[in-house]
Queue: 2 jobs
Job 1
Amino acid sequence: MTQDVVFLGDKTLSLLTRNLNSELQRIGSRWHAVDSGYDTWLVAPLDSGSMLFRKDTAAWAFLLSPRVLEYVPDIEKQVEATLARLAGLATPPTVLFSSVFSDPISPMPLSSNLARQARAARINERLLGFREAHPWFHVVDHVGLALQHGVNNLHDPRFEANAQLYYSPTGTRHLTVLWLRALRALERPQKKVCVVDLDNTLWGGILGEDGAEGIQMADAGAGWAYRRFQRSLLELRRNGVLLAVCSKNNSAEALEVLQSHPDCLLRPKDFAHIEIGWGLKSEALTRTAEKLSLGLDSFVFIDDSAQERDEVARVLPSVDVFPFPEDAHRLSSILSEFPGFDVLRQTDEDLKRADAYQEEAQRKASQQDAASPEEFYRSLDLRLDIFTARMEQAARLHQLVLKTNQFNLTTQRLSPEEFRNLLSNPGYAVLGLRVADRFGDSGITGLAIVDKRDPGHWFVDNFLLSCRVIGRTVENAFVAWLLETARTANAKEVLLRFAPSKRNEVARNFLQASGGAAVDAGSAWRFDVTRPDVLPQHFVRIDDTQVA
Amino acid sequence: MAVDQEKFRQCVLRALKIGPERYRSDLRIGDIEEWDSVAHLDLMAEIEQDFGVRFDLDEMTTLTSLPELLARLERGK
């Protein structure tokens, strides 16, 4: 099943859509790029008969060339009017909007360029502000594209003269890569874990041969590339990617370097898991995945050794093996070209994720101290906030729809549009869940989609929880709450739909222990609202004041 | 100047995004749906890059068949 993204611009974009479609098809994407024609960006959104408003159109892509800064009078007002039009739509589609850069080739480069650049900056700032308020709106970084490749490599006057292309065929190739990444980021979950080797990866040299004094990660000379790479890893971590170590080394010696080497930026606390030993790396990665309760298909493996990369790629084909460069100085640029960590916007939960795994480690330690599971659960002081999902939370909640694998009852990967449509559908309750305990607040980590169109029988189309919050009786607490809520609304029963997948064994186990009855060959589990006593005990305080 | 025929053929296949079975040495624009006016722009750019030539605006619109393109390349830069 394909979905259309319609491209709108001030110039011709047919070469871009042609190249994009060839790439999208090759990688098996659902997206299909549609060219709306020459200079359509101002008019087409006004015309309800245009292709923008067709049923199959799931996204609009606005792609403004630098020429708008020169040719369009009142360009700032025009952008503003376009944004107002988008915000006024009853159900806005997903919108991708390019940031704007100015073409430095001008008759008075020393003076007039500065004014034009300032105008571009004001437009871009406005786009980012608009994005804050609208989860369906994304900005695609054309300024970065221009800075990286340069206008001389993006534009060729002959093609603008001949075909109204701002981006030459060569420029369009770079543009295609950028837009391919943006469209993929909308449909594919971001990688969650970055596993790195140590020798000749996190630092230059081999610890066992060169010693702690001989390895390189200083801010200048041979260590610079590695230090720079460590900075990149810290940036990934700040943005919610978990870091882990997988190294063949003497464990005590390598840990000592991570703990106290003066040039090492990354410290043991920055890693969610550390594997240092002499066994197979594929086995170490498997242990890491178990420890973090995450699937190997969310792993990226970075190692300088071709043998290790090969071993992991062969044994664990779902792991994304990073194309390590021959020259370490290319590490940062290859990482920048690597699409695995692509995401168009960050949610608050992304920014907290790495710390959340540290909290989990403390929780596990406390679990080992407790005399019984009940005592442990009680000691956690668990709180569950249930709330009716609002549009501004759609980005985070939809991310859960895409990313959650284990505790996911139906693994239905709704598109962003399908999901937003549910939020405004009065027949459905879309409920978000937030879990907190004495170790920390997990943020929005759960979701339930309840089909209430038949008042007597509520169908839960999906119920999912991030693996960070399962196993603390929160799932039981939610079902208990839902039964009580359904009973108050005079419903007779609640049915939880279930569809098995390769990965949701955890969800099946939960249902089998839930006290409900399997119906329709296990495709749903039925609960009588008058029998909450069949449910397993929970230890959670529930706050549902935000349920509409 | 002799033109490397195989290099030329590979360049055409890549630019028009077609398999070798679709290739004919006498192809011209419009003969196959893959060679439309949009693909033609890519073909011009790919040939310029691979053969180190630079077409003027007029050539871009008149060199519309493989024999014409080859003849142009044989004349040199």
Note: The CA atoms of residues 251 and 276 of chain A lie 5 Å apart.
Job 2
Amino acid sequence: MKGEGKVLLVLLCLFLITLSKPDLQVEKGRGFQLKTRLIPRAEMIEFLADGYKEAVADYFWMRVTLTYGDENWRKRADDDDWRYLLKLTDLVAKLNPYFFMPYYFAGVVFPWESRYKEEVIPILERGMKYLPNEWRIPFLIGFIYFYFLDSKKRAAYYIQLASEKRNSPEYLIKLAARLYYEAGEEESALLFLEQMEKSTREPELKKEIRRRIKVLRDILFLKAAVKKYIETTGKEPEDLEDLVRTGIIKKVPEEPYGGRYYYDRKEGRVKTTSELGKRRKGK
Amino acid sequence: MERAIVTEGLTKIYKSGKRQTEAVRDLTLEVKRGEVFGFIGPNGAGKSTTIKMLLSILYPTSGRAWIFGLDARSPDSRKKVGYLPENPRFYDYLSGEEFLRFVGMLAGLSGAKLERKVESLLRYVGIYDARKRKLRKYSKGMIQRIGLAQALMGDPDLIILDEPTSGLDPLGRKLTLDLIRSLRSRGKTIFFSTHILKDVEEIANRVGILYKGKLLKVFSLDEERRGSGDYQIEIENAGIDLLAAAEKLAEPSKKNENRITFIVKEDSLFDFLEIVRDKGGEIVSMARKKRNLEEIFLETIGKG
Amino acid sequence: MRSIIAIFSGTLKEGTRSKLFWGILVFALLLFLSTMVVSELSFAEKEKIIADLGLSLISAFGLIAAVILGTDLIHRDIQNGTIQIILARPVKRWKYVAGKYLGLMAIIGANLFFLTLMLLFVLLVYVGRPCFHLLRSLYTIFLELSLIASIGVFFSTFSTSQLLSSLVTLGLFIIGHSLDILRMSAAKSGRFLGFLLKSLTLIFPDLDFYDIKIKVIHNLPLGGSYYVEILLYSLGYIILILFFSSLIMERREFR
């Protein structure tokens, strides 16, 4: 074949490849979504994998991180997707129960980004059994009970457990005590979040937590402003702009999730319009 | 095309790190159509390397070669060429028949024509009865024969054989040499390499001597052997005094019952004949002694 | 053209008469039967388990065949010297490569087809109805293996160790299935390494494209143009790889 013919052939091949690639990637993405939904039964895997449990656990853990790391998946995930991701995480934790990451991932991600909060607790409790020296696991359980499930008593119990572990931060004891005395919710939540921010190394997660910290700080700030407004005017504000007009605050802070802070007259609380950063409904 | 093979400055140099090995150096020769050319040299002289360059199995470092006027690097030059390598190995798992069919297809034959050719070649080399047996079950002699058959596929005008008789029993050797003779009588050109001088002596028209990669000498066997200047004289009934006198002048070579053959130099011829006549001996035969190939070979290499 | 066919049928005969080929097949069949045993462990969806394991086995054995036979084919001809007989004839070297490759793919294709039929038969017995939708997998498995086999052939044109070629080809297969992981690593790595990894993921064929097992087993639909696209993708790479193999063969010398 002459020189030109050869070059043409190579170009033709490259053309074929690049032409078909995009559609194939779309198809692959679809398959990926399906994969996280369809997980073989845990006992089956445990049986089959017997000698290689750790390797299989690693493989599934890789699937978890790849799925979560895929922005497209996060954007389009519905409840079923999250449920299966949780199942997968649970599977990893079952196959390799001494592996810390799945527990941490379960406790930190799911309650915030999905509707599965209570469901995470059994996984974490197993984690406590296998990793008895790890204070972060009972801490996470405590946080979930406190912030999402509104059970201060249980939260306090777990925080106390956490505080008894080696290397746990000192203030946990004080925190447990305070919880038992039912301190105002936002302040304690803020404390929790600040601790979580310190102990998290994942840059993505850290960013998320900082955003939530800002929301809480803003809410606390606005809460104090509202209190002052009530003290000075004797009635509740119509909306937060009232606070600005009366000069109590310079301006309403920007909500980091793109939502809006507003004053709920019915409940008498400062809230935000966006989903995240908001506590579980019902309070 | 008058000339079957032409090479010009064919060279093959192997480089390994800093060392260089010259396998073939500046080889220039011509093989005429219809002749049998014997390419001789000791092992490692570069004979196989040269042959492989002719067939583009190896590429020359420099120089060129042509087969029937076509550049040897083009596959078309091999359309009418048949090749039998040294110590050939073929596809074990094929039967003799299947293998020949395979080679035939590569040579461009097909259909009924191919089948006829396969059959005729199998018979020609005497393998017809074993044609359905797998090649891995063939004896060395049979491999040789099927090898010759595949070389003849496609009715080539030039047949190149690399050490065709090495390792063969006398029967195999005879078959091969007979085959070469018969091919020559049909106008085919044969180019074969060997280190067995006797074979070359028997069938070659022209000879090329290769030593350490260099082509030292190319000559026609017929001419060279003539004109060596010695006579070979066979005498009968030689008495002791005749023998004594004869031995002063000439070398006795063969002895057969009461016949002795002497090698007599040209300038001693007349004296010798006189002695024989005087002493009562009888001359059985007299002929010009042809110098044998071995002598030429050793002499050439000694010089080169 | 005839030369290609000649070498093609020669290769075919070589493959079907090779003990290796039959060994792989028998082994696969035995493991097949064992999938039925394994499926007993599950309480429900036996057919999905059999289908899943069955297809995995077919892929695995196809892979072994593609790697081993692919890296052996041309290598053996060169080692034995039988290639000289062929090259002494007026055959263009690229035709040699093409004929060998086509013969190889015919062998592997037949192997796959037979195993898939076995799987369908087993499922027919178990489930009572024919699961023809599984045949879609045959198509993608075959294409993926064609790609792997071409890589094996590529190495066999110049490597002197069949073991090494096989291991490298297998390694490339694994890399091809790990491109997502490489992409993630590339995003997290330093500039130089990241660039290296990213370019690797762009050049390499993404073998995950061939993985449609989930959809096939659960009888879900595939995108309409998928079949054509995956064919074009495969052809693009295969022709490119065989092209380079031919280039290498063209320049090669033989002892």
Note: DSSP finds 13 helices and two strands in chain A.
